[in-house]
């Protein structure tokens, strides 16, 4: 009987260990639904989508006002300043900046717009 009990305890210990390893090795996106834009916001503003630190860059993705206006941020969001726009609105403008352009304006490309953080997140 003691051998069976020891075997049962060992088996339970192995199962518990495997479960804990599986939980810690899943990518962060599997847990949180995070996107590349959330990654950029992590490095640019520590996920503070409504930040205005007075450095001339605003919001979670740290837009300059000129970039925000050039790519239609005020029209898309109804906000003159990026930090007053929602996360989704900021991401929509960021996609214009990085990929699609807007109203005849060419996209900058993500590595140009976010040179330090783009490589970390893509």
Automatic annotation (TrEMBL):
Signal peptide positions on this chain: 1-30
InterPro entries reported for this sequence: Lysozyme-like_dom_sf, RPF
Keyword Metal-binding set for record: no
Keyword Lipoprotein recorded: no
Any Pfam family the entry gives: Transglycosylas
Keywords from the UniProt entry: Hydrolase, Signal
Ranges where the Resuscitation-promoting factor core lysozyme-like domain occurs: 35-101
Record GO terms (molecular function): hydrolase activity
Superkingdom, taxonomy of origin: Bacteria
Family note: Belongs to the transglycosylase family. Rpf subfamily.
Protein name stated in the entry: Transglycosylase family protein
